């Protein structure tokens, strides 16, 4: 712009007189000039930034303050504001005549008179960090900058839910930073404040995220923080890059807690003051605008007399926050909104306030009308209000943030307690391998006290570990940013360690545990496996092992030599290689037997089963199992040996069959001899004794003739002889075979039933209809009769029944003869009576003819005897061939 084109007026001075007090209170530099570029206002902040007094510079040209190049940039920006008729904002590099250079963000607006004519411009220089670019250093630092840094302390992974809602939705944030500005923790509200998600924010650095023009001041402040452990230090406002690319202004407080093991970082409580800064900028335009912003500012603001402490003005936000009306505030002093305890702190804070135009007073405890205690962050400005010196105060309610901070640090303590209580060793390293944390379990496992290792290089404390896996794995975690897990033996302590290292931006978190016992158990198991393989090679048995925990099988060489299946030494095989080769009829019980053994803690099992060979045939094996259990009773391994007993069992079966045949031959010969003897006795009784008695009867009858003497005696003799005849006939029937003489099987059984019915002990119901006994050999008829005879004798002796049913039929489908004898007597326990003489005789006779005996009975439910014999069997057959 051309400086001589627009005439200047005196209106500029009038406007500045109205709003000068507020302009003087702002933290940024205010420079006002007329149309010729002559400086007409220079606020205290500008004095500090540019290093020149107001009296010295006012009335002089901007060319005397800045170099020609910088002055030209400023006037061009002013011309742009005049042309657009609205404020302009730009970041430019300026250089002073004193040799100091900086990049500043300038807001510039035209100044107008009563006729709305442009009379000059007003520039607000925001946050001016200087760099010494001209080769000389000023005698004193001209400025300091509040900085808001974000970063993170090591993220708290537990207990966050209790206060996440407060912290996440708060406009303020909390960060824990390492000494290089890298975050180890960020409060969830970072998303709302700067727009970054947690992963992106944790990858940032305070210095790289700060506006380039603010870095120099930040570095100076950071050095001061590092040199002042435990001392809260107010940060100067600085600009931080938002995720949308814009720059947001922040201020806050740094507290160096790197020495505190519970934190191990620099705690930064920061807040976005962009809106507040913008509000301050708007105050520059005119007095009316300042008043409007004052009363409508969302932050509580008030003006008070520092001599009487009386309120001079309050805005609407103040009435809402404290509950008093504007009229009530006019009757109060600033001491009335404070507790007694905080009054002394307030009085100390305002002492010497007259020497500071802009001051961060700090945090104070206030009290609302209803007695509620709140915490506020106070920023004060020394201004001229209605002709008197006053203090303009901005009071931000930080009560929720305060509580959130308390919850956060409580969570830190709890998290540390958790880390201290875990059984695994834990430590953290920075990128130089310096130990920043060392928990109690780490002390106990590696016998290294925390005090001897904290803050020192890990390899200085464990020099021999340099020669092991540890350095290489940790470097890989740092380099590739990947989690690494490994096992390593540490000979100095005779320990096996299982180590997992998790990388993060500025360090490494390492968990480790002692696995010496486990490794030695594995070595012992390996020796057992070696012995197993050796035994498997020198035996003909099929040795196998089931690793129950991993559910895999290991077979010895016998799996191939005995059964012909493919086999590779030491190869893991599925459980199916054992289970599915067992004969289908025995497969279901295989696992069940093992599970029952596991449940009952049985250590040894033996049994016989059929195992399939590679060609599809089956071998009978003797399987002997041994089960190994853990200390808690869980089964670990099942080891077994299969011995082929196929030929042995076949020989035993053949030998048993030969014995059975021999026994049957002996039994048959015995029975035949008995029957022959009985037949001879029957013939003798029938042919001799019966004839003799018949003859005697004739004599008696003859003696009964009229000529006879003693007829009564002769008659009695006759009766006796006839009785003897009947008894002899019954005896002969019992001794003779059923097929002998005129008797048949059916007749003999009917005669047997009739004889029993005459005793009146019970009733026998016989059913032999349509039974053709001609198909039965003579020997089988005799056996059936003897079995019926034996069972009837058993019933007479033991049954105590009232009814017996006997039936005989031929089963044409199976060509079997079936004899059934059932009574309604008292029954018996077949397990207790099965070895009785009578039952043994019945079973023995049936087995001689390759038959089967089935007894169904129980106490109180009678007895049913069923005998089935092959219809054509004569007693000399091979029963295995018939079956």
Structure notes:
The protein folds into seven domains: 11-131, PAS domain (Beta-Lactamase); 160-272, Beta-Lactamase (2-Layer Sandwich); 279-403, Beta-Lactamase (2-Layer Sandwich), CATH 3.30.450.20; 422-514, PAS domain (Beta-Lactamase), CATH 3.30.450.20; 519-644, 2-Layer Sandwich (Beta-Lactamase); 649-733; 743-882, Histidine kinase-like ATPase, C-terminal domain (Heat Shock Protein 90). The chain has 30 helices and 32 strands. A hairpin with a 7-residue loop joins strand 10 and strand 11. The strands form six sheets. Strands 1, 2, 3, 4, 5 and 6 form a six-stranded antiparallel β-sheet that branches. It has a six-stranded antiparallel β-sheet with strand order 24-23-22-27-26-25, sandwiched between helices. It has a five-stranded antiparallel β-sheet with strand order 8-7-11-10-9, with helices on both faces. It has 883 residues and is α+β, with helices and mostly antiparallel strands. Helix 24 runs antiparallel to helix 25, helix 26 (745-757) packs parallel to helix 27 and helix 27 packs antiparallel against helix 29 (837-848). The N and C termini lie far apart (127 Å). Residues 1-23, 127-167 and 738-742 have low confidence and may be disordered. The radius of gyration is 58 Å and the shape is elongated.
């Amino acid at each position: 712009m051309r400086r001589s084109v627009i005439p200047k007026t005196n209106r500029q001075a009038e406007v500045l007189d109205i709003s000068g007090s507020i302009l003087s209170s702002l933290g940024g530099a205010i420079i006002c000039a007329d149309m010729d570029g002559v400086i007409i206002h220079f606020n205290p902040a500008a004095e500090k930034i540019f290093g020149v007094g107001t009296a010295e510079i006012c009335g002089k040209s901007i060319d005397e303050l800045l170099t020609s190049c910088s002055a030209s940039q400023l006037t061009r920006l002013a011309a742009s504001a005049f042309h657009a008729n609205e404020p302009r904002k730009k970041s430019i590099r300026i250089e002073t005549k004193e040799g100091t250079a900086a990049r500043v963000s300038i807001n510039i607006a035209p100044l107008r008179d009563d006729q709305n004519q442009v009379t000059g411009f007003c520039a607000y220089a925001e946050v001016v960090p200087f760099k010494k670019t001209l080769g000389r250093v000023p005698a004193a630092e001209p400025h300091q900058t509040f900085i808001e840094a974000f970063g993170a302390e090591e993220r708290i992974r537990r207990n966050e839910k209790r206060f996440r809602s407060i912290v996440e939705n708060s406009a303020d944030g909390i960060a824990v930073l390492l000494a290089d500005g890298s975050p180890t923790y960020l409060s969830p509200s970072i998303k709302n404040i700067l727009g970054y998600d947690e992963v992106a924010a944790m990858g940032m650095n305070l210095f790289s995220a700060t506006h380039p023009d603010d870095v120099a001041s930040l570095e100076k402040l950071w050095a001061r923080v590092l040199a002042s452990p435990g001392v809260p230090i107010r940060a100067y406002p600085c600009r931080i890059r938002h995720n949308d690319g814009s720059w947001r202004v922040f201020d806050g407080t740094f507290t160096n807690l790197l020495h505190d093991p519970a934190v191990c970082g620099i705690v930064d409580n920061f807040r976005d003051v962009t809106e507040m800064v913008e509000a301050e900028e708007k105050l520059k335009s005119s007095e009316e605008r300042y008043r409007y912003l004052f009363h409508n500012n969302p932050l509580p603001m008030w003006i008070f007399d520092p001599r009487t402490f009386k309120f001079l003005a309050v805005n609407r936000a103040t009435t809402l926050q404290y509950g008093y009306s504007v009229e009530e505030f006019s009757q109060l002093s600033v001491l009335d909104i404070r507790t007694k305890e905080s009054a002394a702190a307030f009085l100390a804070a305002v002492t010497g306030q007259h020497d500071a135009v802009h001051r961060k007073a700090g945090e104070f405890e206030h009290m609302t009308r209803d007695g509620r205690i709140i915490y506020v962050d106070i920023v004060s400005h020394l201004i001229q209000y209605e002709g008197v010196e006053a203090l303009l105060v901005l009071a931000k309610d930080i009560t929720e943030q305060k509580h959130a901070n308390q919850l956060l640090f409580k969570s830190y303590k709890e998290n540390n307690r958790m880390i201290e209580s875990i059984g695994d060793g834990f430590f953290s390293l920075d990128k130089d391998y310096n130990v920043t944390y060392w928990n109690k379990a780490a002390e106990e496992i590696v016998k290294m006290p925390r005090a001897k290792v904290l803050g020192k290089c890990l390899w200085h404390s464990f020099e021999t570990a340099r020669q092991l896996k540890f350095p290489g794995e940790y470097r890989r975690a740092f380099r590739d940013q990947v989690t690494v897990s490994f096992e390593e033996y540490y000979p100095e302590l005779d320990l096996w360690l299982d180590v997992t290292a998790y990388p993060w931006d500025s360090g490494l978190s390492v968990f480790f545990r002692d696995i010496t016992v486990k490794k030695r158990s594995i070595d012992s198991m390996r020796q057992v496996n070696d012995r197993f393989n050796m035994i498997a090679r020198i035996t003909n048995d099929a040795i196998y092992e089931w690793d129950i925990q991993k559910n895999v099988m290991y077979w010895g060489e016998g799996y191939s030599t005995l059964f012909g299946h493919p086999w590779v030494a030491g190869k893991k095989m599925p459980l199916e290689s054992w289970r599915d080769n067992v004969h289908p009829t025995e497969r279901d019980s295989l696992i069940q037997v093992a599970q029952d053994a596991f449940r009952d803690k049985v250590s040894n099992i033996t049994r016989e089963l059929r195992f399939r060979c590679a060609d599809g045939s089956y071998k009978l094996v003797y399987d002997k199992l041994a089960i190994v259990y853990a200390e808690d009773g869980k089964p670990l391994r099942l080891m077994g040996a299969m011995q082929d007993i196929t030929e042995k069992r076949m020989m035993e079966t053949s030998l048993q069959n030969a014995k059975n045949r021999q026994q049957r031959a002996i039994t048959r010969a015995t029975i035949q001899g008995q029957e022959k003897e009985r037949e001879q006795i029957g013939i003798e009784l029938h042919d001799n004794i019966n004839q003799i008695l018949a003859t005697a009867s004739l004599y008696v009858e003859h003696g009964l003739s009229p000529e006879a003497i003693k007829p009564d005696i002769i008659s009695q003799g006759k009766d006796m002889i006839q009785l003897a005849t009947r008894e002899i006939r019954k005896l002969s029937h019992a001794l003779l075979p059923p097929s002998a003489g005129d008797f048949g099987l059916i007749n003999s059984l009917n005669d047997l039933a009739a004889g029993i019915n005459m005793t009146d002990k019970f009733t026998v119901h016989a059913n032999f209809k349509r039974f053709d006994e001609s198909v039965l050999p003579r020997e089988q008829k005799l056996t059936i009769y003897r079995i019926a005879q034996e069972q009837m004798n058993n019933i007479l002796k033991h049954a105590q029944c009232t009814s017996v049913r006997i039936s005989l039929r031929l089963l044409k489908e199976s060509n079997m003869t079936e004899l059934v004898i059932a009574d309604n007597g008292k029954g018996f326990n077949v397990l207790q009576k099965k070895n009785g003489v009578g039952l043994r005789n019945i079973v023995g006779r049936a087995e001689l003819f390759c038959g089967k005996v089935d007894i169904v009975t129980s106490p109180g439910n009678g007895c049913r005897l069923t005998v089935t014999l092959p219809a054509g069997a004569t007693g000399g057959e091979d029963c295995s061939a018939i079956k």
